[in-house]
Amino acid sequence: MAFLAGLRGSSWQGALRRLLQCWPARPPRQLRLCESLALGERRFLSLVELGEQKFLVGGSGGSLAMLATLPAPGSRAGAPEEEPPTWKFAEGALVRCVQEKRPA
Q1: What whole-number percentage of the chain has pLDDT above 90?
Q2: Which of 7, 87, 97, 100 has a C-alpha 20 to 30 A away from that of 24?
Q3: How many Cβ atoms from other residues are within 10 Å of residue 58's Cβ?
Q4: Ramachandran assignment for 56, one of left (phi > 0), alpha (psi -120 to 50 degrees), beta (any other)
């Protein structure tokens, strides 16, 4: 920026404009933390977005696990046909509860 100090008037603005045009633009971010919920004792749930896809992530202590992949808005792909899974904490980890299927 020291080279800009010697320029006067609009000439420094032009020099700065040319400099910024040559500077490589940073690509837009693909990964975004939408929301996070603290569950206590170093446990949390987070909703993470990668492009159009959303993921529910859970963590505790030194572990991290993807709990669910959420469908993109407006799509029927991945729509639940049965009851959604339930989760519980067991022995310091998040565990998916397996439910028996009932005969129709």
Answers
A1: 22
A2: 7
A3: 20
A4: beta
- The pLDDT value recorded for residue 91 is 75
Residue type at 68 in one-letter notation: A
Give residues with Cβ within 8 angstroms of 64, minimum separation 6. 57, 58
The pLDDT score that the predictor gives to residue 75 is 66
Whether 29 has a pLDDT exceeding 60, the answer reads yes
Q: Pull the structure tokens for residue 30.
A: 């693909």
What lies within 8 Å, CB to CB, of 29 at 6+ separation is none
Looking up tokens 């990668």, which residue turns up?
A: 50
Residue 96's alpha-carbon distances to 17, 19, 63, 84, 93, in angstroms, are 56, 54, 15, 11, 10
More confident residue, 58 or 15: 58
